[in-house]
Write a structure and sequence with these properties.
Helix content: 40-55%
Pfam family, one: Aminotran_5
Organism: Bordetella bronchialis
Largest sheet: 7 strands, mixed
Structural class: alpha/beta
Strand content: 5-15%
Protein name: Aminotransferase class V domain-containing protein
Keywords: Pyridoxal phosphate
Distance between the termini: 41 Å
Family: Belongs to the class-V pyridoxal-phosphate-dependent aminotransferase family.
């Protein structure tokens, strides 16, 4: 590992030492009383982060695996799904539906814009869908879906609301029950501060009624009913990611010790300061949306520059690892993770490193302007 390596991606994110140490503990029997107690503990302490009273289902899986699980447990051959896309991962959700043979429509929003709730309502008036699928926090564009308004559209209908909150959960508010979100899927490697490999799902009573009909696309590993049956015995149906559950418990200790409201407020405050600092050195926020992410900052790259060059320079000179885009925004956007275990010094260091490399890439700005703007933002938010 290079000296000074700084993982500042929109996920996987930096794993704190105490969580890394927890994952190295002695492996226990995943069918034994010790692991049953840990699984139950993790489940109960995840519920307030999801904003739910639902059972929490555990998978050894990536976030994309959980997206597939959400599709196959809901889709049936005789019903249609609606995918509301506003970035790369919304398109991936729809691609998963295509791959498993689900019937679906897409409602595409311009990348970087807020979701047009009226357009969704219009589509729902045209056709009855079994479910609407949407990305909660679209990390390719750093725009957040208004789940409360989407949930209000669907609450008194037969249509379910399904969301991927892989890059949102524990860094952006989630009120699943209050908002009427029927399925939330997530994963361990983002704001939950753990290594990749643990998938999570929370399923409402309304969604369970649909799943219990048994007409969904056949599933074995991803079968929510199978996982719930095992969970009721304190287990998972297949070998779980035991070390990551250890780490998750440690992460939940950290989150609840700080206090979830304070964790969410820290994410909002620091991401805003990073955006303000970046804007001051000529890297404005990407897009036109107002529902900006607290866990990812997406910045527009000046027309004469290539975002990939910024990514490369930060790594070569400072071992700071940020993300560009591997899609139609390639070269036009850079993205920095603002999730998990990070503080004021983290984002000030990000800005210092940007200020150091940008002049050599031909970008002019007032030296120190980014750090000064971020400090002013932080001071202002501390007073409010």
């Amino acid at each position: 590992m290079p000296d000074g390596y700084r993982l500042r991606l929109p996920g996987p994110t930096f794993v704190p030492a105490r969580i890394r140490q927890a994952t190295a503990r002695l492996i226990v029997n995943h069918r034994g009383p010790e692991f049953r107690a840990m699984l139950a503990d993790a489940e109960e302490r995840l519920k307030p982060i999801f904003g739910t009273r639902n059972r929490i289902l555990f998978f050894a899986a990536s976030g994309s695996g959980m997206m597939e699980a959400a599709v196959v447990n809901i889709a049936s051959p005789d019903t249609e799904l609606l995918f509301v896309t506003h970035g790369q991962f919304g398109e991936r959700f729809a691609s998963i539906a295509a791959a498993v043979g689900a019937r679906y429509d897409r409602l595409d929003m311009p990348w970087g814009s807020d979701i047009d709730i009226d357009a969704v309502a219009g589509r729902l008036r045209e056709k009855t869908y079994r479910a609407v699928f949407v990305i909660h926090n679209e990390s390719s564009t750093a725009i957040v879906a208004d789940l409360a308004r989407l949930g209000a559209l669907l609450r008194d209908t037969s249509t379910l609301l399904v969301t991927d909150s892989v890059s949102g959960l524990a860094g952006i508010e989630m009120k699943q029950d209050e908002w009427g979100v029927d399925v939330v899927v997530s994963a361990s490697q983002k704001a939950l501060m753990c290594p990749p490999g643990l998938g999570l799902a929370s399923v409402s009573a309304k969604a369970w009624e649909v799943i219990e009909r048994g007409d969904h696309i056949p599933a074995f590993y991803w079968d929510f009913k199978r996982v719930l049956a095992s969970l009721e015995k304190g287990e998972t149906p297949f070998t779980p990611a035991v070390p990551i559950v250890y780490g998750l418990i440690e992460a939940l200790d950290m989150i609840h010790a700080e206090g979830l409201p304070r964790v969410l407020a820290r994410h909002r405050r620091l991401s805003a300061a990073l955006r303000d600092g970046a804007a001051a050195i000529g890297l404005p926020v990407f897009g036109t949306g107002s529902n900006l992410s607290s866990t990812v900052v997406a910045l527009s790259v000046p027309r004469e520059m290539d975002g990939a060059a910024i990514v490369k320079a930060l790594y070569q000179r400072h071992r700071t690892v940020i993300a560009g885009s591997r899609n139609k925004l390639s070269g036009r956007v850079i993205r920095i993770g603002t999730m998990g275990d990070f503080d004021e010094d983290t984002i000030l260091t990000d800005l210092a490193h940007l200020e150091n490399v940008l002049p050599d890439l031909g970008h002019a700005f007032t030296p120190g302007a980014g750090i000064a703007a971020a400090r002013a933002s932080l001071a202002g938010s501390a007073r409010s």
